[in-house]
From TrEMBL, chain B:
CDD domains, per database record: TM_PBP2 (cd06261)
Protein name as catalogued: Amino acid ABC transporter permease
Transmembrane regions: 12-39, 51-74, 86-105, 140-164, 184-205
Span of domain ABC transmembrane type-1: 17-205
Record membrane topology: Multi-pass membrane protein
Any one GO biological process: amino acid transport
Pfam entry (one): BPD_transp_1
Cellular component annotations (GO), alphabetically ordered: ATP-binding cassette (ABC) transporter complex
Keyword set, alphabetical order: Cell membrane, Membrane, Transmembrane, Transmembrane helix, Transport
From TrEMBL, chain C:
Keywords: Cell membrane, Membrane, Transmembrane, Transmembrane helix, Transport
Organism listed in the record: Pseudaminobacter soli
This protein's record includes keyword S-adenosyl-L-methionine: no
Main subcellular location: membrane
Protein name in the entry: Amino acid ABC transporter permease
SUPFAM superfamilies, per database record: MetI-like
Tagged with keyword Lyase: no
NCBIfam families, alphabetized: HEQRo_perm_3TM
Residue ranges annotated for the ABC transmembrane type-1 domain, each copy included: 21-209
Entry's localization field: Cell inner membrane; Cell membrane
Segments passing through the bilayer: 20-45, 66-85, 146-170, 190-212
GO molecular function: transmembrane transporter activity
Automatic annotation (TrEMBL), chains D, E:
Domain ABC transporter: 4-238
Keyword Nucleotide-binding among UniProt keywords: yes
Superkingdom of the organism of origin: Bacteria
Lineage: Bacteria, Pseudomonadati, Pseudomonadota, Alphaproteobacteria, Hyphomicrobiales
Entries under Gene3D superfamilies matching the protein: P-loop containing nucleotide triphosphate hydrolases
Name listed for the protein in its UniProt record: Amino acid ABC transporter ATP-binding protein
SUPFAM superfamilies: P-loop containing nucleoside triphosphate hydrolases
Any Pfam family the entry gives: ABC_tran
Amino acid sequence: QTTEEIKARGSINIGMLVDFPPFGIINEQGNPDGYDADVAKLLAEDLGVTANIVPVTGPNRIPYLISNQVDVLVASLGITEERAKQVAFSQPYAGIEIFVVGDVNVGVDDAAGLSGKNVGVARASTQDTAITEIAPDDAKIQRFDDDAAAVQALISGQVPLIGASNTVIAQIQKVAPGRFEPKFSLRQQSQAIAARPGADEFMAYINDFLTRKKESGELNAIHEKWLDAPLPEFVAKTAK
Amino acid sequence: MIRPFGINEFLFILFAVQWTLALSVVAFTGGAVGGLLIALARVSKVAPLRYAALGFIRLFQGTPLLMQLFLVFFGLNIFGVGINPWLAAAIALTLHASVFLGEIWRGCIQAVPVGQSEASWALGLRYYDRMKSIVLPQAAKIAVAPTVGFLVQLIKGTSLASIIGFVEMTRAGQIINNATFDPFTVFGLVAALYFILCWPLSILARRMERRFAVATRR
Amino acid sequence: MGYEFNFAPVFANFDHLLAGTWMTIQLSFGAMLLGTVVAIVCAVGKTAGPAPLRWAVDTYVEIIRNTPFLIQIFFIFFALPAVGIRMTPNVAALVALTVNVGAYATEIIRAGIESIHRGQVEAGIALGLRRGQIFRYIIMKPALRTIYPALTSQFIYLMLTSSVVSVISATDLAAAGNDIQSRTFAAFEVYIVITAIYFLLSIGFSGLFALVQRRAFNYPLSR
Amino acid sequence: MPAVQMEGVDKWYDKFHALKNIDLEVARGEKIVICGPSGSGKSTLIRCINQLESVQKGRIFVDGIELTAGPKNVEQVRRDVGMVFQQFNLFPHMTVLENCTLAPVKVRGASKAEAETTARKYLERVHIPEQAEKYPAQLSGGQQQRVAIARALCMNPKIMLFDEPTSALDPEMVKEVLDTMIDLAEEGMTMLVVTHEMGFARQVADRVIFMDKGEIVETGNPKEFFANPRHERTRNFLGQISGH
Amino acid sequence: MPAVQMEGVDKWYDKFHALKNIDLEVARGEKIVICGPSGSGKSTLIRCINQLESVQKGRIFVDGIELTAGPKNVEQVRRDVGMVFQQFNLFPHMTVLENCTLAPVKVRGASKAEAETTARKYLERVHIPEQAEKYPAQLSGGQQQRVAIARALCMNPKIMLFDEPTSALDPEMVKEVLDTMIDLAEEGMTMLVVTHEMGFARQVADRVIFMDKGEIVETGNPKEFFANPRHERTRNFLGQISGH
Ligand SMILES: Nc1ncnc2c1ncn2[C@@H]1O[C@H](COP(=O)(O)OP(=O)(O)OP(=O)(O)O)[C@@H](O)[C@H]1O
Ligand SMILES: Nc1ncnc2c1ncn2[C@@H]1O[C@H](COP(=O)(O)OP(=O)(O)OP(=O)(O)O)[C@@H](O)[C@H]1O
Ligand SMILES: [Mg+2]
Ligand SMILES: [Mg+2]
C-alpha cells in the first residue's frame, strides 16, 4: 500500500466505528459522523482523494483491515502490544481514559476489589484487555458485543460493574443520573490510525499528516467540537 | 452526544428494511438456482452426483450461517480474491438458501408419483423434457407452501449479514441503540418490523399448505 | 496476499474452546428437552384446549416464528430484569433457546398429533381410557415417530442458532472463539476451527438422533 | 333388566338428523345383527351405546345404568362394553400382548401379571396365542381383527359391539374372524353386530334389524326376515346384497 | 425378423431373482396374453421390453435392434414401443390433447399442428374426441385409460405393451377399454398384454403365456391353454381365477 496507489485510485477506504459515540456515530441524516469521521475526511482531503467510509464493528475491525477491505482504520483503535503484532499504528490521534464504573452501592476502589464480582466489557475493546490484565482470577468477566450492550447490562442490573471510557460514562450519567459512578481509573488509552504492516511509506505519510494537523490546531478544533474538551495532553504532543 | 429516540432514528431503522429486503431477494434468487441444481443432483441416477450434493448439504446445514458469512467474506480476501460485501453476502446466503431449498424441493420432486416418470420414459422423453414438462411442474405445486415458509427463515437469517458490514434492520437497531440507549423502543421496533414482514408470509404458507392437504387427501 | 495461517494460538487456547463446546452442548441439549416439553404442552393446548388457551399458544408461536432470535434473546436478558426476573447469561441463553425451539416444535408436534388416525383415539375411548391416558399411551409415540425427522432437523438448526447467544455474554462455543480471537487476533484460524467444531457437533447430534430413533421407534409399520 | 335399552333416541350431526326416534331393547345374551344401506345410521346407533357419539334426545340404559345421565356413568359403562371396529384400530407401537393388557392395567387397575395371563387366555381363544410378542403390522388382516376382539374381551365386557368387523378384510380372512365371533356367540355373550354377512346373521342372530335413513324400518328373527321381508325397502336392500 | 426376441434373459432385484432364463419370440402382428399369480414377474417381463427395467443377463431385440447393447438403442426402441399402465399415468397438469401431443413434438420433432391432427385422429378411434380439451381428473377411469392408449398410439408404435390395463377400473368401465384393445388387435398391432381378463384372452390372443416365480411355465394357444392346461400350477391358477 502506497500513497501513490491511493492517489491514483482517487479514493480511500476508511474503516470506522459507527456505534461508539462521540467518536463514531450515525447522525440524524443516517450518515457516519463523529470525531473519527471528521478525522477521516481530513485525511482524505489531505490526500486529495474522496473518502469512502466503511462502517466496521469492534470485533471485526482488524479482520477488515488485514483482509484488504479497507486501506486504513480510523476506528478508535487503542494502541496495545498485542494489536501491534497485527497492524501498524500511527502516532496517537485521540485518547480516552477508561474506568471501572459501577453501582454507587457497590464498594470497589481498586483491582483487588473486583474479586468475586461480575464485570461487563465490550468484547475485544481496550477495556477488555485492560481488565483482563489486572482483574483477580476469581473476577468474572462478561464480554458483550458492544458498549451499548455492556451499558445495558449495567443499567438493567445484570452486572454490577463494567469497564468503560470517560465518554461512555458521560452517557451513562445522562441515562441514569446518580446511580453509577467511576470506581477507579484503569489507564489512559491512546488511539491511533492503523494500516497494514509493511506499508512504511504510507504510515510515514499518516504520521506527518497528524503532526501537521496537531500543529495547525485543526485536530484540536475537531476534538472540541465533539468532546467539548481539548485534545488530552498525552495525545496532543507530536511524535517524530 | 446521546440523543432521544425520534423520527430520524425511526426512519433510519425503517430505511434499513430495504437492505434486509435486498439481501433476501439476492439470497432467494441465488438459492432458487442453487437449490434446483442440488435437488436435481439429489434425485439423479448418477451416484457420485448424489453423494456430492449430499456432502454439500451436510456441510452447509451443519455449520452456522454466521461462520459461513465470516469465512466467505474475510477468508476469500485473505486468499487474494477481492470480494465486496455484496458478493460475499450473495455467495454465503446463496449457499445457505441453496441447501435448504434443495432439500425441500427434493422432497417435492420425490412426491411426484414414479408412474409419471415411467410414462415419460415409455414415451421416449429425454431428461430435459421429462423434468421440464412433467416432473417439475407437478413438484412446483407441492413446493410453493414450504418454499414460502423457508422465505421467512431466510429473511430473518439476513440479520446475520451485519457481521460483514451490512446495515440491515438488526444492525441499524444496534447502531441506533448505541446512540439512544433506549433498547426497548429500538428492538421493539425492529421486532415489529420483522413481524410485519414475515407474518403475512407465514400465514400465506399455512393457507397454501392447508389447501394442498385438502386437494391431495381425496 | 501474504497472510500466514497460524493455528498455534488457537490450539494454545483449546481448553477454552472445549469449555465453550461443552456449554454449547449443554445449552442445545437442555433447550431440546425443555423445548420439547413446552411444545408438547402447547400442542396439546392448541389441539384440545379451550379457546383462550389456543389463542395464547397461537400468539406465542407466531411472535417467535416471525422475529429473529437475536432480538428475542436481547429482550429476555435485558427486559425481564425490569419486571424482576434476573438470570445469568447462560441461563438466559437456555431460556431464550427453549422459548424459540418450543414455538417451532409446537407446530411440528401439533402436525404429528393431527396425523394420528381418529380410530386410534376412539379405540382408546372404547376401552375406557381417559383423555390423558389416551394421549400418553396411544397418541404420543406414533405422533413423535411421524414427525421425528422434522423435529430433529429443527434441533440441529437450534444448535447452530445458539452461536448467537454470545451477544449477552453467554460462554458458548462462539463466545469462546470470539474471546480467543480478540486476544490473539487470529480471526480466521479461530473461525475455521470453531466452524469445524460446529460441524462435528451437528454430525454427532445427527448420529445420536439416529440412535434414539432406532431404539425408541423400532416397531414395524404396515407398508 | 335388559342389557341395552334405548328410549326415543334422536341424534343430529349439526343439521343432519342421523337417528330418528330409536326404541330398542336388547336382552342379556341376545345377538342382534344390524344391516341397512350405507349412511343409514348403523354405526351411529351402536356408537351411541358406548357414547362414542352423544345423543340429543332420549335415554339409553346399559345394564340398568343410565348412560345419558352424566359422565360418571359413561366411564362405568365403557368398561363393560367392548367394541370392535372395521379398521381394527390396533395400537401400532405396542405388541399384541401390550395392546391387550393396556386397558386392564390402566383402567381396571389389574396387575401386569394378571393382565398378561388374561390376555394370553383370550389370544388362545381367538387361536393366535403364538402371535403375542409381534406387532400389529406383522400380522395379516384376519389376525389383526382377532387381536382386536381379544383386546376387547380382556376387559371382561358384558356386551360386545361390532361395526362391520369383516368388511376391511381380504375374502380369505373373513371366515376366520366370523368363526371367532360364532364361538363367542355360542358362549352366551350379548352382541350387537353391524354386518352384511348374511350367512352369519342366519346362523347366530336372534334378531335382525334393518335400518334406513336413521330409522329402524324392520326387525324380526332371521328366518322370517330373509324369507319374508315386510317392507319394500328391506326387499330392495336384500336383493342388492345377494346379487353382490 | 420377429418383433420381440428375448434370449436367456435373467433379472435380479438385488438378491431377488425376478426373471429366470426367459426365452420368448413374438412375431409381428402377434397378440400375446401373459398371466400368472401376483409377483410372478409379468410386469417385470414386459417392462424389460422398453427397458423400464434393465436386465443382468441375456439379450433382448426389438424389431431387430439389440436393446441390451447400449443406451442409444434404448432411446430408439422406446419410440417404437407404446406402453399402457395399470394406473394410466396420464399427466394431470396437461389437457388430454397436450398429453397426446407432448411426445410427438418433443421426441419425434413433429410440428404442433401435425401432432394435434394425429392426436385427434386417435382420440376419435378410442371414441372420446369430445374430451380433448379436458384434464385427466375430469374423466372417468375408463376414459382416462383410453386417453392413455391414444397417447401411446400417437407415437406410431410398432408394438404395444399393456400392464393390467383394466384392473384399476370399476367393473362397468372394463368393457369399454377392452373393446378399444380388441379394435386395435383386429387392425394387426403387435401386442403383449398382461391381464386376467380371460374373455379377452380367448377372443384375441394368439398365444397365452403363464408365468410363475419368474419363469415361463406354460405357453399355448388359448383354446388348449384353457381347456387343457398341462401344468399343475396352471390348473390351480385357472381354478382361482374362474372361482373369483
Ligand atoms: N361426524 C359426523 N358429522 C356429520 N355427519 C356424520 C358424521 N358421522 C356420520 N355422519 C352422517 O350420518 C349418517 C349416518 O352415518 P353412519 O356412519 O352411522 O352410517 P352407516 O349406516 O354406518 O353407513 P356405512 O355402512 O357407510 O358405515 C351418514 O349420512 C353420515 O354422512
Ligand atoms: N423395484 C423392485 N425392487 C425389488 N423387488 C421388486 C421390484 N419390483 C418388483 N419386485 C419383485 O419382483 C417380483 C416380480 O414383480 P412383478 O411386478 O413383475 O410381478 P407381477 O407378476 O407383475 O405381479 P402383480 O400381478 O402383483 O403385478 C415380485 O416378487 C416383486 O416383489
Ligand atoms: Mg358405518
Ligand atoms: Mg404387475
